[in-house]
Amino acid sequence: MILKKVKIINYRQLQNVELDLQNSLTVLAGPNNSGKTTLISVLKGMFYDKKLRFNYSDIPTNLSTAWVDKILPVFQPIMIKHDKETGIREIIKQISFNGIFATEYVMESFQARIQVDYNPVSDNIQYFADYLMDLDETKHSFYFIYTYEPSVSSFEKDLNEQYDKMAARFRDIDNPDGVEKDTKRYFLKEELLKLYCNASIEKCYFCNSNYENVNSMEVSAFKKLFNFQNIPAIRELDDSESDSSKGISKRVIALLKDNVTWVEATKRLPDLLMNDIENSGAKKEIKNSSIKSLDDTIRNISKTSGGYIGKLQLEMDVNEDDVEDFIQRITRAKYDIDGLLLNEESQGLGFSNLIYLHMRLEEFYKSIDSNKVNVFFIEEPESHMHPQMQKVFIRFLKKYYIDKKLQGLITTHSNEIARMVGLDSLRVIRQTGKSQSELFNLNKFRNSIKNKKIKNVDNESAFLLENFFDWFFEIGYSELIFADKVVLYEGDSERLYIRKLLGLSDLSSLYDSYISFIQVGGAYAHNYLPMLTMLKMKTLIITDLDYDKAVITLDAVKNSKSSNATINHCYKLVCPDKEEKFTPTIRDLYNLQREDKVVLYDGLVYLAFQDEDSTARTLEEAMFNKLLGYNAFKKIKRSKWKAIRKDNKLTFTIPNNKEGEKDSEYSVREIVEATSNNKTDFMYSVILGGNEEKMLPDYIKKGLLWLAK
Question: Which residue, among 159, 201, 158, 167, has the nearest Cα to 187 in the 3D structure?
């Protein structure tokens, strides 16, 4: 039995999120506050806890606000005018019919849609047979709905308790004295939402594959279909000397409870303990002492109670439960290191955490009921683990789930775990709007690009796009799934420069964002866009125009073409009517900038490249243009270049004088070409000399300002 899908509707930021699970291990990755913990809370509340927490703060604000706006006009005039008995009767009359809430006063509620798949050959469906709705022999799934629905009787009962307090607030709302009117209204809205949530009752249904034709079932019966366990992110481990939790020791003892030898040994302990106590004379001494010390007290009490109540004494009675509790308190897991027994806390918390997780997995494995849906979740297993240990652990975990045929989910914000698990098992959750998260299935993404080929800039060599993304994650670029925004850049000098620019006041909002910087040439940058746009990542591509460097006039530049595959690819997105083999001229690309068509994919991607004013083809040429006001072709004397270098504390190469010349002239392009092997040194000198802002090309500034919005 496999938990195949869970779709969460209208719970906090999870307003329409579908989690599609693998048969073995699924990894849910995402940045902080993306909804991972919320999703686990819902799953735990449905499958494991007695009840899912549900109050007004769990309702998306757009829904709760709309509901309050409808019901407030019902309550206000009635509560101002009528006493409790009449008021409650009038309110219930208006918002319900035949004991059921009227449709217009039922909030679009939280709902979870659950799909459970089974193997008709190997799975026993005896627990699920009553809930089979799909009689198609080719389909092997059960479908359930878990939700909360308001009860009129519960609403009325709670309203009876709150009526007088709320009525007083309604009557006082226009009073100019005391608390402001908006504060009073806020209180009343909050109370109305509390009434609704307190009256909402946990409900379960089984249904067909469209989640229609619903049939009610007991909540307890639904929960019994699942063997759900989880390890929360906050663990009961502590590496301090005062550690009293002894988490590993407890887990060892829990594992041993199923060991026949251990069970037999502990069964004999009560008798052994009692024999030792009696042989020592301790039992006899305690008995005699208790009779002597308590006898006078009991005699006096019996006089006042009018009867003989017997003698009170202390007697030892040791049973198996007492022994088990005793063993729990005295047994410690210890490490034997060179003949010395060291306590749990002698090892680092990361190592202890690793052992703890292994033991919990083994406990769960022993608890499996093959007739139920067995799922084991781990929240943030990377806690206290070094990246290398994370890598080893996730490899073990994948193999463990596959070998043991277990199903599970782990949540993480570890780049190492996301990198090692691969696209097939990875799900990404991200905030894509105000108080709204979305969940992205990278397995589906991988299937969508299967067998698609991408070509190199020479248009000859080709490789599979899915292999590109496998490699992309393998080298560590998986960090982008945790980022707020992404910058694609070409080389080390761009990386140095952009990171420094983020310190400028105009870009301060970017400085506080988690930005993933991905180094990629113009030949390949566009291949990242399918994943970035699927994840709805705001992405800035900073790339070079790369026209023929031999071109030295503006007209010739405009008539030339760019060799940058990413720029040419993006142009065709803007102008899809062009022939497949059409390559835009630089004039066409300048027009894109002039017409503000460099923002693509519904506003998610900004393409930044050198503009017409600079005539530059590279970043360095554009930076010199911004500093000096010269285009890329203008030649100036070598002596002036030396002065520019000295005055601005820059590091760049100036060619020697040409043969027969005392002060040769060189263009910006020739200086950049001469410095091509020392671009990083040049960029360091820009930054250390404090020139980053005055040399900031317009196309990069525009792109960064767009990213900062």
Answer: 167
